[in-house]
């Protein structure tokens, strides 16, 4: 990913690297999930913000964690203490469902 001498990466490079539309990064900024630096009207991302983008993308890719929960988990408020255990339980429930589906498909595949 291209970055300037100051360690900042332009928004276009961030979007391309993570396979995200620019509108997604703009939306995440409006929701205060990321806070890029502004220079001459353009958004630039430092290393911390790049890590946040990677984390948010991973969470969103699962389809399990909504933007509201992500904001709670990235924030310092009391919502994090409640959101994380709930999401762990939901992930475990989903994993069990996927394991059952996979077992069924493997049995189906083995049948003649």
Automatic annotation (TrEMBL):
Molecular functions per Gene Ontology: DNA binding; DNA-binding transcription factor activity
Entry-linked Pfam families: MerR_1
UniProtKB keywords: DNA-binding
Residue ranges of domain HTH merR-type in the record: 8-76
Residues annotated as signal peptide: none
InterPro entries linked: DNA-bd_dom_put_sf (IPR009061), MerR-type_HTH_dom (IPR000551), MerR_fam (IPR047057)
Gene3D superfamilies: 1.10.1660.10
Highest taxon listed in the record's lineage: Bacteria
Protein name per Swiss-Prot or TrEMBL: Regulatory protein MerR
Species lineage: Bacteria, Bacillati, Actinomycetota, Actinomycetes, Kitasatosporales
């Amino acid at each position: 990913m291209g970055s300037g001498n100051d360690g900042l990466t332009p928004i276009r490079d961030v979007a391309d690297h993570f396979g995200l539309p620019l509108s997604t990064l703009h939306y995440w900024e409006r929701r205060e999930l990321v806070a890029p630096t502004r220079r001459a009207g353009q958004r630039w991302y430092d290393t911390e913000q790049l890590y946040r983008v990677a984390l948010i993308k991973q969470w969103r890719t699962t389809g399990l964690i909504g933007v509201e929960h992500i904001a709670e988990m990235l924030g310092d408020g009391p919502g994090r203490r409640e959101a994380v255990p709930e999401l762990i339980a939901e992930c475990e429930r989903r994993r069990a469902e996927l394991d059952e589906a996979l077992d069924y498909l493997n049995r189906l595949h083995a049948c003649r």
